[in-house]
Amino acid sequence: MLIRAPGVYRPQADTHLLISAMFGAGIPPHGRVLDVGTGTGVLAIEAARIKAASVTAVDISRAALASAWMNSRLQGLEVELIHGDFGAVLRGRRFDVVVSNPPYVPCLDSGRPRGAARSWDAGADGRAAIDSLCRLAPELLSATGILLMVHSALCGVDSTLNRLREAGLKAATVARASVPFGPVLRRRAGWMVDRGMLRPGQSHEELVVIRADRT
């Protein structure tokens, strides 16, 4: 049972798909793990359970970090918690494993999202956080580091793969799952159909986990 403050993202199908990929990736038991956009801290907690040397979790939401702090303490696990934009607060640090379930839902409002919307709103194409993480990944990964990131195929799988490869990393899709639209996508379906991002009548999206390694 996870404690979740109001406005903090509830672990869903994308979270569970990423957890499965994380364990399937063969994470070294004494590696340094980073969870970008930790939310309730569930990914960080799972990493700590496999005896990572250290686990760091970052989030722009103080409510998320409070939730992650409570959940990790209740499990008796040590997680370093950092508040702020991951693009600014992690400079100069390297990790053996980076995991992330970033915001990836396209939104009408191009301004900075607030409240719970920070967990999913990611600009007009849903790629604001994804592209930032692709750019920063080479700086975050150790010499043998890996990145595992989950997002909707609606955001463009090839775009993510290409950006990671352009950054000098080897990248591939390692997991997929088809899931029904959640309430946010259902509310935006008409707008997304008009933009050509969805087919009329479409009610499911494909989730993907992308892995990137140093070449």
Structure in words:
The chain has 215 residues and is an alpha/beta fold. It is built from seven helices and seven strands. Strands 3-2-1-4-5-7-6 form a seven-stranded mixed sheet, with helices on both faces. Helix 3 links the parallel strand 2 and strand 3. The longest helix is centred in the first third of the chain and has 13 residues. The N and C termini lie far apart (39 Å). The model has no long low-confidence stretch (mean pLDDT 91).
In angstroms, what separates the terminal alpha carbons? Answer: 39 Å
Query: How confident is the prediction overall: mean pLDDT?
Result: 91
Strand content: 25-35%
Write out the strand line-up for the largest beta sheet, numbering strands in chain order. 3-2-1-4-5-7-6
The helix/strand order is HEHEHEHEHEHEHE
Radius of gyration: 16 Å
Major β-sheet profile = 7 strands, mixed
- Model regions low in confidence, pLDDT < 50 over at least 5 residues: none
| Helicity level | 25-40%
Structural class: alpha/beta
Shape: globular
Number of continuous helical runs:
7
Give a count of the beta strands, DSSP E runs of length 2 or more: 7
Could you write a compact summary of the structure shown?
The chain has 215 residues and is of the alpha/beta class.
Topology summary:
Elements: H1 13-24, E1 32-36, H2 42-49, E2 54-59, H3 62-74, E3 80-83, H4 86-89, E4 95-100, H5 128-140, E5 141-152, H6 157-166, E6 169-180, H7 183-194, E7 204-214
